[in-house]
UniProtKB/TrEMBL annotation:
Keyword Signal among record annotations: yes
Domain annotation SPOR: ranges: 52-129
Organism annotation: Flavobacterium fluviale
GO molecular function, one term: peptidoglycan binding
The protein's name: SPOR domain-containing protein
Keywords: Signal
Domain of life (superkingdom): Bacteria
N-terminal signal peptide: 1-25
Length: 129
C-alpha cells in the first residue's frame, strides 16, 4: 500500500468537500390537498375528547356479560332514558354497560334508585375507578 503524498491528500480532501457541498437532497416543496371534512371531523373529535372526563364523575354500571346482550341493554336503556349518556366498555372477559356522567354522589344515587327498578345488577362507580 502506498502512502499518499501531502499534495494528493489535500487534493482528495478538497474534491470530497466540493462534492459534498453540492449535494442538495429533497429541496422540493410538498403540497397536501386534504378534504375539509377531515379537518371538521378532527375538530369534532377534539371537542368530544375534552368533554369526556370519567375520572371526576360518578357513573352507574347496569350490565356485565356478553357483547350481544350488552348492545341490547344499552339500546333499551337509551330508548327509555334519552337524557342519560351510556357506553359499552370491554373488560376481559365481559362487556360492561356504563351509564351517566354525574357530578355529585347525590345526583348519582337518585338516578341509581330509578335505574334499579328496571335493571337487576346495578351499582355505582366512584370517580377514579
Amino acid at each position: 500500500m502506498r502512502i499518499l503524498s501531502p499534495s494528493k491528500n489535500l487534493l482528495l480532501t478538497i474534491t470530497s468537500i466540493a462534492f459534498a457541498h453540492n449535494i442538495n437532497a429533497q429541496d422540493q416543496n410538498l403540497t397536501l390537498n386534504q378534504d375539509t371534512k377531515f379537518e371538521q371531523l378532527l375538530n369534532e373529535k377534539r371537542k368530544i375528547n375534552t368533554s369526556i372526563n370519567t375520572n371526576d364523575t360518578y357513573r352507574i354500571q347496569i350490565f356485565s356479560g356478553k357483547s350481544d346482550e350488552a348492545k341490547k341493554t344499552l339500546s333499551d336503556f337509551k330508548r327509555e332514558n334519552s337524557s342519560i349518556d351510556g357506553t359499552i366498555i370491554f373488560s376481559t372477559p365481559n362487556y360492561k354497560v356504563i351509564v351517566g356522567n354525574f357530578k355529585t354522589r347525590i345526583e348519582a344515587e337518585r338516578n341509581l334508585a330509578e335505574i334499579k327498578k328496571r335493571y337487576k345488577s346495578v351499582f355505582l362507580l366512584k370517580p377514579g375507578k
